[in-house]
Design a protein that fits this description.
seven-stranded antiparallel sheet, disordered C terminus
């Protein structure tokens, strides 16, 4: 874990959490969570662009055509098949960097999947934080549906269809040419803002 991540974790954080039980084996859920070879409906049809997921790796979540990048981050924890955490920032926002954690735990009948969003308590509640809290339910429900049935929920599929119709309205700031992996945020960016 990076020094900046440890510093963030030692400070007070505000969290939102969503949890579901997925009727599958832990390796199956983990494999779907970290898939890099195709768009993932539970991640709003984003597809990882990364040299490989592992601690310290940068990633971008790009649209299926690769034209836009909606999220950037760096992996800060990677313990297959139980824990995965990364920094998170929307490319269309200047909000502080936050942390997203995924925790998988075998339970009777499947896997308990927990998604936790962490934001520094010293930061005001941002638009990104509100969107992340709303998105957590979508992610959990659609990951569960995908693993258990092979497809996203009906509501999820309808939302993804609407997103595809709205794709031409994506801000130019999100063009992937503006977001090489070197721009992936880490938590030290929050420290720089605080010191400035």
């Amino acid at each position: 874990m990076t020094e900046a991540a440890a510093k963030h974790m030692s400070g007070e954080v505000r969290t939102s959490m969503y949890r579901v039980i997925i009727k599958a084996g832990i390796d199956q859920v983990w494999s779907e969570l970290i898939r890099t070879d195709r768009p993932m409906p539970f991640f709003f049809n984003g597809q990882y662009d990364t040299p490989g997921l592992g601690e310290g790796a940068a990633f971008a979540m790009r649209t299926p055509d690769g034209k836009h990048t909606l999220v950037m981050g760096k992996v800060i924890e990677f313990e297959p098949p139980h824990r995965y955490a990364h920094t998170f920032r929307f490319t269309t926002s200047d909000d502080p960097v936050s942390i997203v954690r995924y925790v998988l735990k075998p339970v009777d009948g499947g896997v308990e999947f927990t998604l936790i969003n962490e934001h520094a308590a010293s930061d005001p509640v941002s638009k990104s934080e509100k969107q992340m809290a709303q998105g957590a339910k979508f992610i959990c429900e659609n990951l569960k549906a995908l693993v258990e049935t092979g497809k996203a929920t009906m509501g999820g599929r309808m939302m993804l269809f609407m997103f595809s119709l709205m794709a031409p309205m994506t801000p130019k700031a999100a063009l992937s040419t503006n977001w090489p992996l070197e721009r992936a945020p880490d938590l030290s960016e929050n420290s720089v803002k605080e010191e400035a």
